[in-house]
Amino acid sequence: MATESEKPTMSHSTPWEVRVQDRPGSSVEEVNREPDWEANHSHRIGFVNRDDRRPGLTHPREEYAEEIEEARKQLEEMRSKVDMGELVNFRDIIQSQRDFHIKYPEERPLGWRYVLNTTEDWVKNKEQWPANMQQHQKQEQDLAKTKTKQQDKRETGGGKCPQAGQAVLRESMPEFEWRADNNLKEKHQEARHIDRATSESRGKERGHEGGKEQTGSPNVHFTPQELSLLHSLEHEKDVVSQLKQNDGKGKSPQTHNRSSIAIDEQDQYTPDNWLPRCPDLIRIGGKHPMNAEPPLSRLFDGGLITPNELHYVRNHGPVPRLMWEFHKLDIEYGGRKLSLSMNELKNRYRESVINIPITMACTGNRRKELNLIRKSKGLNNGAATVGTAYWKGPLLRDVLISAGVPKAFARRKNLKTRGMRHWVNFAGADMPSEGPYETSIPFDYVMDPANDVILAMEMNDLPLPADYGYPVRVMIPGYIGGRCVKWLRRVWISSEENKSYYHTWDNRLMPSFVTEKDGRFAEALFHNPSTACYENNLNSVIAKPAQGETLALSDIKSGKSYRIAGFAYDGGGREVQRVEVSLDGGENWLHATREFPNSPLRHGNKFWAWIHWHLDVDISHLVRAKSITVRAFNASKTTQPEKPTWNLLGMMNNSWYIVKPEIITSVGQGPAISFRHPTEAGPTAGGWMKPSMEVLMQEAKHQGGAPEKQFTRGEIEKHNKYEDCWLVIDNKVYDATSVLNWHPGGRAAILAHAGKCHQETTNEFVSIHDDLAWKKLHECILGRVTDKTAKFIRESAEAAAKEEAEQSQDQKNLALQRRRWVPVKLINRRQVSPDTNTYTFRLPEGKAVLGLGTCQHLQIGFHLRDKMLIRQYTPTRPLLPAQDSQGHGDEFSEKHDHKPPKHHVHTGAHRHQDKQRASRQSEVTEEATNCSLMDGQSGTFDLTVKTYFPSPSQPGGALSNILDCLPLGSEVEIRGPTGDIIYHGNGHFSIEGRDRHFSRVSLVLGGSGITPGYALMARILMTPGDRTEIRVVDANRTEQDILLKQELDNLEKKSGGQMKICHVLSQAGESWEGERGKVDAGMLKRSLFKPARDNVALLCGPPGLIQGVVLPALIGWGYIEDQSLFGF
């Protein structure tokens, strides 16, 4: 695709010839049959509509295939340019990378985003632009001078200690060496609740009275509690005997799979910045990679089939962004390879497709209980890293057979292979820190059709969400999640187990005496096939009562019941045949009622899905209970162990699950009973289990001293790059730069916190890492933060928690969200000047109010490969706040008939856009031009952005060029509002949460910094009765650089002297009649209000102008920071 510099030119040496091939016109019949078109009637079956779609028709396979091939060639051409060392900019890259999700959304997960496959750092800093070469030469010269000075100091005897900036190699040792060196009772069934009306009714039917039933013997009668149990068992017998087979052809009953497509701010600086995730998921492994589980109550309330967004996530690294059109699955056997596109995999094996409910659990489920005994090498999983969904796809055995793989090796004539064990190996497309994620399972297990091993392409009847393996993963019913490889790219057969890192060193159950991953014992056991985890083990969990749930003692009445409930599961297709609950610590057990998903049986005896269970108890017994304990039994009549067994990786904990009641008293509420689970997922310390003495002693060691050197917040924030990465943990400062190349969680997990002074870094590190990690961290120590920085970290954490708690439902209904990125669609682009455009974006459906206060900003985000590209803007429309629920709001002043100027449509730089969009663009332009300036009236907003085009010496602005090239209909992300200054009208401001009033406002603005000032000017001058006076200094280089000049001139002209603006140009042309030169103290005094109690100065512009000139000048004049002087 040609860029601006590659526009074709007309040469006089080229003959201007026109050649037209003769074509027949439409037939008479076709002319007569043509519909009577109307301007607004483009939506007709078979004809291209305004969105470039043919309603009612699927896409022709040939046309789709041609587009895929063309896009592939464009990518190859771009890669070739890069390999040849050609300089490419953002315009080149975005025009060569097609994304099909706008035109072909069918095969995409909900919330799919376009991602530009590059990084801002590579384009701007790593490419050999002339400007970069000059900077590199200067850096090399500075480094050489520094080395010379250090050498001189060493020669004079001053070099015994490390110099500032000099790397220090600190002693390390294997973990096993380091550890060696640092050597009155009731009958229990009486608790069962009795529905007395039902009991009496059944008694009459069966010929007994008084709640007792004869058993056939004249001397034996059942108590009401025993009758209740008997009726429950009889009912369950009928249910189990009538369970239906699942033929694999049904649909998932779960339809509430995605409630939001917003992106969490925690992902914005990671490679996962393009992924929408449920905000309710608890991140147990820090920001990145994503490892999360839902709150236990939410998981249970989701039902027997888990909604997609509430299913747990277990990632080892960034989620690969695989395109349906380009991704292929390779099946390898005997030197041959079958390479399947996603369309081929979906369509070729239709007869083999099944859709069945499968429970998948993480081997680390309930690991936090083990971590409180002794820290394992795993995350703090709660009890909800498990879920059940319908998974749909073809049987893997049928795909393997089609690739020439034999159905069995045992019966083959080849003596070399007969009797040998074989393995099916899987490799994902992700690249975690320790290499490709690979594993293997026994060949015979895969080839047994009764094991239902599938290549899943759908989850609950939707394309796989990216976190769950899009576009294809292997699903092995009854197996642990770690064997169900996501983002599958390769399957092959071998005569030995997979030898990759993740197959060898993960998902293993070690004996308790193994306490590290190196050393001879660990080496022997991690390579022992018997330690590998394959099938899930038997487990059961209590979900109700929930953690922290309370029952007021005053509400407890005789005969009232409470339903204890939870879930249970097992591996290998084994049925969970019994669930029991104890209220007295395990001395007596009550039988619970099981609940199965619809048609849970496969092949007569396979149960791939969990069960829910419940037990109704008399509430008076619940109050007196020592604890609430659950255990389950499987088809082998095996049950769970009473106590947990610690192991190095924290795997397969399935001990009794215990909830403990305690009496609490709250002011004004009276006494109540509160329930506490053993743990809460992640760093939260809310369960009844407490750290063991061993864990407490380890934590005490971590609080060791730090060097006396102190670092300010300003200094720490400078070290936020891959080449220079500092972390603040527990108010200590660490240089983690050298760790980035080998960190087990990947470098993104660290870089997300680089240079940041916030509590989140400490919380994440403490919740994830063991004592060896603390030791390695201490090797990186530099010093500690200053007292002021420590106070800032503490108070910021408190403020964030308070803000989260106080967020109202009204705020959640606005388009802008403070903690989440929301997609908005680009619907129009208008050229304001040769290098400036006004972009119109449509807000999400059902959220017509942007929700931005006057003077506040929003952030625009665009997805790049390593992180989100983020820039801050102030919209130039809307300019007035939304009306409240009673219809009250600011009205237009009749004297200010302010309308946006009409601009011509800019098309010259956008030849890559389809011509069919032109009519739609014209309609949208007229709509945007005439819409209201009040928030909420049109469901759209405008940004006016200057494009910093590339030149031969530099690549130009990142986001401004991307916006200039972005096809209409594409999406960007917005988040906000940001900014601590809000104008409410009539001189009233909120600044950093404090109410202030100013009658006269001075503005000093530079370049694109004009937009927040413009929003304030427009709000004041368009609000009837607002007499706040305004003085403005607007600094730019040239007249063409002045943004919104026409709008500013109109405001000043119609203000009647209420507003005066001084434009100053540093490179003014001969015709310029305004101020010339650079802003100085004298110019500010001539143009602005002098310091006074009721006057304020607000600033926004480039650092050289604001920090270098304006701030010192205004402070010297008498303005006071944080009182009468603020920055937007």
UniProtKB/TrEMBL annotation:
Biased composition (Basic and acidic residues): 137-157, 182-212, 887-897
Bias (Polar residues) ranges: 919-933
Domain of life of the native organism: Eukaryota
E.C. designation(s): 1.7.1.3
Catalytic reaction(s) noted: nitrite + NADP(+) + H2O = nitrate + NADPH + H(+)
All copies of domain Cytochrome b5 heme-binding, residue ranges: 708-786
Annotated GO biological process: nitrate assimilation; sulfur compound metabolic process
Residue stretches of biased makeup (Basic residues): 898-914
Cofactor: Mo-molybdopterin; FAD; heme
Molecular-function GO terms, alphabetical: heme binding; molybdenum ion binding; molybdopterin cofactor binding; nitrate reductase (NADPH) activity; sulfite oxidase activity
UniProt keyword annotations, A-Z: Coiled coil, FAD, Flavoprotein, Metal-binding, Molybdenum, Nitrate assimilation, Oxidoreductase
Coiled coil: 61-88
Boundaries of every FAD-binding FR-type domain copy: 819-984
Region of interest called Disordered, as start-end residue ranges on this chain: 1-37, 131-166, 182-222, 244-268, 878-933
Similarity remark: Belongs to the nitrate reductase family.
Subunit structure: Homodimer.
Job description of the protein: Nitrate reductase is a key enzyme involved in the first step of nitrate assimilation in plants, fungi and bacteria.
Name the record gives this protein: Nitrate reductase [NADPH]
Origin species: Neurospora tetraspora
